[in-house]
Amino acid sequence: MPDRPRRRLVLDTRPLRHSADFRRLWTGSSLSVISGQMTGFAVTLQVYQTTHSNLAVGAVGLASALPLILLGLFGGSFADAIDRRRLVVVTNWGSLLVSSLLAAQAFLGLRLLWPLYTLVAVQSLLGAVGAPARRTFVPRLLAADQVAAGIALNQLSFQVGMMTGPALAGVMTAAGGLRTCYLADVVSFAGTMYALARLPPMPPQGGTDRPGLAAVAEGLRFIRRRPVLAGVFLADLDAMVLGMPFALFPALNAAHFGGTPQTLGLLIAAPGVGGLIGSAFSGPVGQTSRPGRALLACVMVWGTAIAAFGLARTLWLGLPLLAAAGAADTISVIFRATLVQVATPDGFRGRVTGVDFVVGASGPQLGNFRAGAVGSLTSPAVSAVGGGLASLLGAGVLALAVPALTRYRAPVGDEPR
């Protein structure tokens, strides 16, 4: 009994204890996140060392983003048509081949850009096809009352990987060159492939017969008929498109926080630190009976923190505000992913998850473009404050316009999903 309050606050680890399949998959995926960040670091640094061009480095992000945005929906239709475990195994073998080719070009000492861009695009394409299917594993492996906890654990491993991967890559590059980062990514696939091999078959239950445009259109019509799902996606777009401030960090750093690389690094790291804390203390997420309301509350906290950050003039105030924004964003991601998985029948889960994947991939990029455009027309501070307030107001409008989202109740115990 004494540990009951603590359980309500701290991350719920029951999925790791109760499901060996989830535990193996989580461990392998955690290693993959870290090694994937190391590969991202290596590609970015290799392109810069080859060209010394910021445009060439930016093109790496473009090569990665376009396949995710364009093919994520179709990946969801594949996940609703064929065995999801088999689909993820095939795309992981493809990713292993791509990682091996990246390592090979590093060991051969090639100084060509087109292989890097091509391999990054192919890796992203494989992710767009496999990721929606992979995200549907959690509700198939865990009881309904543990789905939120499983998603929170996945989010924690993502946050840890985002922080430790680049740092570890820097150390390994200094010790053995970029080739060691690529090689580590290849080796890390062993954990994921072992975990996937131990999973049971996961055929979709009542899914589509044929993947493609018609199946994608059917999934979009399903979302339109389920206002709670439409509200979830609109809430995320509201937060990211209207409130994302990252493109403003260099200008705000120069104007208000000293302009040094060290302070810029702190600004960039602060949301990640907040996200890690939010993941670690996400225990209440799985016990929230009205997750739609909680999601909108997180968006409001995000918008308020971003607007306040735009007004901050001292680093000691700006960093905690960004950390609070990062924590709210991470918890909102857990709520969003849980709602998508639990409120969607299995036959549509791949396609709806594909939409979730595309929204999550495109929203921040569109938001950074908006922030930069508004900042160039007005000022960086006005862009940050206006974007945060617009996100806050948008969440209030959604609460009124999509009452199904605020009324939605989470299933209890082993209630059918």
Q: How would you portray this structure in words?
A:
The protein is mostly helical and 417 residues long. The protein has a single domain, classed as MFS general substrate transporter like domains (Growth Hormone, Chain: A). The protein is built from 18 helices and no strands.
H/E series: HHHHHHHHHHHHHHHHHH
Largest sheet report = none
CATH-defined topology: Growth Hormone, Chain: A
Instruction: Work out the helix count.
Output: 18
CATH superfamily: MFS general substrate transporter like domains
Kindly state the mean pLDDT as a whole number?
88
Distance between the termini: 30 Å
**Number of individual domains:** 1
Helix share, percent: over 70%
Strand content: under 5%
Radius of gyration: 21 Å
Q: Which blocks of ≥5 consecutive residues have pLDDT under 50? A: 1-7
Number of strands: 0
CATH class: Mainly Alpha
Fold blueprint:
Blueprint: H1 4-9, H2 14-18, H3 20-51, H4 54-79, H5 84-108, H6 113-135, H7 137-141, H8 147-176, H9 178-198, H10 213-225, H11 227-243, H12 249-256, H13 261-280, H14 291-311, H15 315-342, H16 346-377, H17 380-401, H18 403-407
Helix pairs in contact: 3-4, 3-8, 3-9, 4-6, 4-10, 4-16, 5-6, 5-9, 6-16, 8-9, 8-13, 8-15, 10-16, 11-14, 11-15, 11-16, 11-17, 13-15, 14-15, 14-17, 16-17
